[in-house]
Amino acid sequence: MAPVTSAASTTKIEDALAHLPITATIQYRKGETVYGPDRSSMNIYLVVAGSVGISRIADNSSEVLFNVVRPDELFGESAFLGDPWLAERATALETVKLMSWTVADVDELMERRPRLAVALLQILARRNAELTRHIASFATDGVERRLARSLMYLSERLGKQTEDGSVRMISFTHSQLSSHIGTSREVITQYMNRFRKLGFVTYSRSCITLRKEMLRTVLGEPSVDTAVATN
Predict the structure, then answer these.
(1) Contact criterion met (CB below 8 Å) for 177 and 168
(2) Which residue has the higher pLDDT, 123 or 99?
(3) 206 exposed, middle or buried (CB, 10 Å; 0-12, 13-18, 19+)?
(4) Residue 6 predicted with pLDDT over 60
(5) Region 117-130: what's the mean pLDDT?
(6) Domains in the chain with CATH codes
(7) Interval 124-138: pLDDT, tens
(8) 120 neighbors 16 (Cβ within 8 angstroms)
(9) How many helices (H) and strands (E) does the chain have?
(10) Max avg pLDDT among 6-10, 48-52, 74-78, 154-158
(11) How many Cβ atoms are within 10 Å of 207's Cβ, its own excluded?
């Protein structure tokens, strides 16, 4: 009998960048809007340097930060919906450099390069999985655990490990963190102060530094050292 091979083990992850032509880069300053209700766009973007926050805008005009896009990642796929989607905003979280292509250009490229369409579908599938996990956290976790998960997620996407084993990433305001996990800025301030006093995080206007092994205790997860010791 032939061995059973799972679909996951044979699926090739396509590189969308291999199918997209190089274009001129555009720079946005920290806090500048790439697109949003007051600045519509029909483009797909690539982050060349820096990072971009993607927010959804509710009917009451409040914003929820649901994704952070890092270098070599695409965003702006909502442009495929047709008319500029006014319920989404993309904001530079730091100085960023972007390439862009119009939806019409990408559509034409996909006709000539079908693997580009596969790559874009894989990107959407991954983002849908991340969004599903984020929504599940709203249903099962309290504010403290949601904040810990968000800090871990952001550090994994944007952080760099330092010599002492901690992870340093760009700074996020308490308002940005509150919009990511669905609570008030005052509550975030309370828990961030608690995390700082416990030695889990240090932060300033320029960066946030996490001790991830200590932060795992908030999630009820053993540290790596503990896990090794019990095996």
Answers:
(1) no
(2) 99
(3) exposed
(4) no
(5) 89
(6) 14-136 (2.60.120.10), 142-229 (1.10.10.10)
(7) 898 888 888 888 888
(8) yes
(9) 8, 12
(10) 48-52
(11) 14
| Rounded alpha-carbon distances, angstroms, from residue 51 to 61, 102, 153, 221 | 23, 20, 14, 29
* Residues contacting residue 152 through CB under 8 Å, at least 6 positions apart: 210, 212, 215, 216, 219
Q: Which two tokens stand for residue 31?
A: 């806090």
Is 15 strand, coil or helix? coil
What is the residue type of 61? Answer: S
Q: How far is CA 153 from CA 68, 70, 150, 158, 180, in A?
A: 10, 12, 5, 9, 11
**88-92/52-57 β-pairing:** antiparallel
At 225 the pLDDT is 46
- Of 94, 97, 16, the C-alpha closest to 49 is 97
pLDDT of residue 229: 40
